[in-house]
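Read as chain and fold; for instance:
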Amino acid sequence: MSLETVDILDNNNTPLMDCGTVHNLKRRRVEDEYTEQPSETTSLYRKHFIPISRNSGVFSTTNWKDSGTAIFCPVTHDLFLNIHKYDQITTTQGNFFVGNVEGNYEKTITGNVVHLWKHDKTQRQFYIAQSLLFAVPQDFAIMQKILHSV
């Protein structure tokens, strides 16, 4: 009986019975997938979304008027802009009206605006869907750098 036991233990040379090899392959495959996945999601995030942090120097409006009478309200929460849903992006520099959270005028400030344009297929024309006002030049420079890298 002890000979049979030794023969059974010695017969584990077949690839199907080699548990160490099978498990190592599974671990490698899982580890390879894990190491590749974060880099793909990171690049996807960088290509499609632009983070806009809420701070005292960032304002937004969805009611841009060509007359320059739009009131920009403070951004009250962090934004992630999907820039691929916009058809065109332009910038403007000048003096703009800033209001409080309710939209009431408070003051006029100098800054840079990023206009996010969409195309209306029914009217066959472009319109400004959203405008972001940056009162701090460094914030605007970061935004420009991100837009140029996309």
